[in-house]
C-alpha cells in the first residue's frame, strides 16, 4: 500500500501539481467565463475557446469543451477567481479528499477494512495518475456513486437517487442507473434520479442560459453518444464504437483503410453489441432480491457495463471501476471464493494498467485488435461477474421467473436494436457523398477550416498538436513562424496576400505587415475587399462581437491603415462578416435570441438579408456578387445553403447528419467548406461542392 501510494504521489500528484496539462484548463476556462459574465453559447467552438485561452495566457497548447456537460464546469467555479495553476492545485487537494472520502465510505459498506480497500484503490495506477495529472472530474464522480450506494443500503432512496443525478450531471453515464432502479422496482431511487436530473437541468439553464443548454442537448449530446467527440477511430478509446468504426467506416484522414467500407454493417453490429451486453445483465438482476451481497454484485456488474458501453472511455474513466471491484471483492472474500477473487483483481489490474500496443499503420491488422485489448479484458471481467451473480442469485425454483423476465427483455431488446439500426442508417446515409467531396490536402490536421482563395490555390486554418497555423494548399505555412496562434485569416485575390489574426496573451491582432503600426489590436476574424481597400473585423467584449471597418491605402509591400470605425452597434452580437464586390458588408449577428444575416453599407443602418426561424450564420459572397453561401441549422445540424441575391431563392447543398461550417467561394461555381462528417464533433476536414445555378 505504501509503495502504491508513493507511486501515485510521484507519477500523478506531483506532475499534476507542476503544470496545467490537458483537461483542467477546459473546465477552468468555462467556469471563469461564467464568473466574468461572458456570453457562453460558443464554448463548444474549438477556435473561439482557443482564442479565449490565448488572451488569458494559459500555458496549454490546445483546449476544447467538446462532449463535456456545461454543468461539469460548476465544481471549478469557486476556484475560477485564482490563476489557472493555483486553481488546479486546489482541485488536486480536493481530489485527494474525494479519494479519502471514497475509501471511508466503502469501509462502512464492506468488511474489507481500510488497508485492503486502499490497496484495491491504488491498484488503479494509470487511471488515478491520469486523473491527477489532467485534473479530471472522475474522482468526484466516484465518491458521488459511492455515497449513493452508501445511502441505498440505509434505505435513503431520495438521497441515493439525487447523488446519482449529480454524478450524471458531471458525466452522463450514471443517469442510466434509473433503468437499474426501475428494473429493481426501487421507485424512490428511480424517481429521485429523474427529479434530481430535472432540478440540475434547471440550475444549468439558470447559470448558462437556455440557448447553450439547447445546443448541448440537441447537438452535442447526440454526437457524444455516437462516439464522435474527438477521434471516433482511436484505439486509445478502446471502445466497441471505435473498434467498429475502424472496421467499417472510411475516413480519408483518420481511417483510410477500413476492413470493409460498409457503414450499414456498423448500423447492424453496434446496436447488436449493446443489446448483447444489456440483455444478460438485466436477466441476471433479480427485481425482487433484497440480499445485500447480491445487490453489491449487481451494482458492480451494472457500473462495469456502463464503462464497457461508453463510446469514448479514456484511462481516467476507469477510476470509477474502483467502486465495483471493491463491492465484488467484499462479496467474494465473504464467500471465500478466492480463485474468483484473484481472477477479478488480476483482470481489474490489467484493465487499468496494461495498454495495448498502438497500431503501426492505419491498416487493420492483428495489432489493431491488440490495441483494443482493454475492451476485450473488460468484457471478460464483466462475464466473470455476471456468472457470479447468475450462479448465486438463481436457484432451480427461480427458472420460471427467468423465463418471465426474458420475454419482456427480448421484446425491449428487439425495439432497441431496430431504433439503433434506423438511427445509424440515417446518421451514415450521406457520409459517402461527403467523403467524395473532400479537398485534397497533403497534411492531416486535427481540424481544418477557414478556407480563403488565392490566385494559385487557397489557405486554411489548421489545428496541430502544438496549436493553430495558417497553411496553403500544399501544407506549407502561409505566414512566418510565430509563437502566437493563427486563428483566422483573410486574403486578397489580386495581390495573393494573406492577412492573419494572431492570438496570444496580448489579445488578438490583425497583422497587415511586420511593423507595430501595421497591426490592428483587439481584432479578430478579418475579411477584406477584392481591391484591398476595406477590411472588416470583429472586436469582442465579454464574448459579444462588435463589427468594425478599416479603410486601407494600398502601397508597395503592405497596405497602410487610414481609418478605423465601428460599423454597427448594440444590440447586434456579430459572429462573422464578409464583403461584397461592391463594398457592402454582409454579416451574421445574434439579436433578441435569434441569429440572422444582415447587410449594411458604411454610414447606414443594417437591414435583414436572410432571416429564418432557424439559425443562419457565416455568410460568404461569390466573386461576382450574385450568390451568398451560408450555413443554416436544420434538424439540429448545420447545413450548407446558397441564396440568389436577385431572387432570394435558397438551395440546400449538404444533407448529412453532421455539420458544415465556414463556407467560402473558390470561384463563382465552387464553395469550399469545413465538415465534421465521420469525424469528431467540430474537428473538421475540408471539402468543396459545385453550385448549379
TrEMBL record:
Signal peptide: none annotated. It is found in: Cell membrane. InterPro entries: 6-blade_b-propeller_TolB-like (IPR011042), GT87 (IPR018584), WD40 (IPR011659). It is a multi-pass membrane protein. Keywords: Cell membrane, Membrane, Transferase, Transmembrane, Transmembrane helix. The chain crosses the membrane at residues 120-151, 163-183, 190-217, 264-285, 297-312, 338-356, 368-390, 402-424. Pfam families: GT87, PD40. It comes from Alloacidobacterium dinghuense. GO terms for cellular component: plasma membrane. Belongs to the glycosyltransferase 87 family. GO terms for molecular function: hexosyltransferase activity. Its main location: membrane. This is DUF2029 domain-containing protein.
